[in-house]
Amino acid sequence: MRSGGKGVATIKEIAEQANVSSATVSRVLNFDDTLSVSEDTKRRIFEVAEELEYVPVRKRRARKKVRIGILHWYDSHKELGDPYYLYIRLSVEKKCTERGYEVLRFDTVGEFQDLETVDAVIAIGKYNEEDLAEISLKNENIVVVDYSPSDAYDAVVIDYREAVMKIMNHFTAMGHQRIGYIGGVEKYHGGASIFDFRFQYYKEYLFFEDKFEEKDCYFGEFTHQDGYRLMKEALNKDTWPTAFFCGNDNMAVGAYKAIHEKGLNIPQDISIVGFNDLPGSKYMVPSLTSIRVYTEYLGESSVDLVQEVMDKSRNYAKRIIIPVKLKERESVRNMHLSST
Q1: CA dist list (Å): 337 to 107, 246, 333, 334
Q2: Largest CB tally within 10 Å, which of 63, 166, 198, 208?
Q3: pLDDT, mean over the chain
Q4: Which residues contact 111 (CB under 8 A, 6 or more apart)?
Q5: pLDDT of res. 6
Q6: CA distance 35 to 26
Q7: Please, are residues 81 and 253 in contact by the beta-carbon 8 Å criterion?
Q8: Contact by Cβ (8 Å): 240, 270
Q9: Among 260, 252, 314, which residue's Cα sits nearest to residue 277?
Q10: Is the separation of the CB atoms in 331 and 286 below 8 Å?
Q11: What SS3 class is residue 273?
Q12: Kind and range of the H or E run holding 300
């Protein structure tokens, strides 16, 4: 039984008292003629709804506009430097606007202030369990986008294993035996290192082929500056891989520059694959093969998920996995073909 006087009941509360499913309550209250339930069940649902003073979600929103807080892992400077998170945020904001939600952006990195002033929080980026526990003290309606440290919170993520397997299988099919890695090391706001699924699955793939070489792996930040610096470091050695997997497209941009400065050609001398498939990747010379991450789907799905969280229609966390696609372009050489 609900306590504390009058208020707005949820579909779940009505379902519990009427001893039916939430789906049945929703369909009865929306006068779904295709639903086959007894008159007694319908009557019981309407009576419970009246007793609890149920207000449909659409009317509830007309009474009070839903406010969604977007929490940034990147500050505005980093967001412009690596627009991957920018595109996710824009997609979230667009979907929220279509739903009639009010959007509030929280740009203070590493601090979680005023989150109790919104109905729910969409946290874009990489938050550890300590961060999320702190956020949940301010607002328990949380959806995490891009990274999920545990199964305790609703999340929308991509399939990193599938993505890396697509890259490595493509390199292998094109005849590359020695494949290097240029990636970044990221840290939570508290300073602890973040587990990098891209490097882990790259390493796992080569390890089982007995081809993994630590000397062919280079790490910095996920920027074009470090992509350039790390590729120059690789090319200063006596030998280098015929192909490199770059942790994101920004790093691939820097790698391109270092390769051209060395007087080498892509893909004849070195093949490159990026990650995220940012809009400019197809205009690079040669056009960059990259993993297409559907940032628009990440954003849209997070808004769908946050509605479920606010409705409190389930008592378990849900994780949505968005598939990826390898966009094959001109930056990978087929080693099986003779040089021309």
Answers
A1: 51, 24, 9, 6
A2: 198
A3: 87
A4: none
A5: 43
A6: 11
A7: no
A8: yes
A9: 252
A10: yes
A11: strand
A12: helix 295-311
- DSSP characters over 172-235: HHTT---EEEEEE--B-TTSPBPP-HHHHHHHHHHHHTT---GGGEEEE-SSHHHHHHHHHHHH
The tokens for 62 are: 């007309």
Helix axes 39-51, 22-29, angle to 10 degrees: 90
pLDDT value, residue 23: 85
Verdict on whether the full-model pTM lies above 0.85: no
pLDDT in tens, 121-148: 999 988 889 889 989 999 999 999 998 8
Hey, CA dihedral for 204, 208, 214, 218, is it positive or negative?
A: negative
Q: Are 15 and 22 in contact (CB under 8 A)?
A: yes
Average pLDDT over residues 109-129: 85
Q: Which helix (H) or strand (E) holds 291?
A: strand 289-292
Q: Which residues of 248-282 are buried (b: 16+ CB within 10 A; e: fewer)?
A: bbbbbbbbbbbbeebeeebbeebbbbbbbbbeebe
Tokens standing for residue 140: 């328990």
3-state secondary structure 104-148: EEECCCCCCCCHHHCCEEEEECCCCHHHHHHHHHHCCCEEEECCC
Determine contact, residues 106/114, Cβ cutoff 8 Å.
yes
* H or E element, residue 158: strand 154-158
Closest CA to 143 of 294, 321, 307: 307
269: pLDDT confidence band, cut at 50, 70 and 90?
very high
Taking the CA atoms of 82, 84, 86 and 87 in sequence, report the sign of the dihedral they define: positive
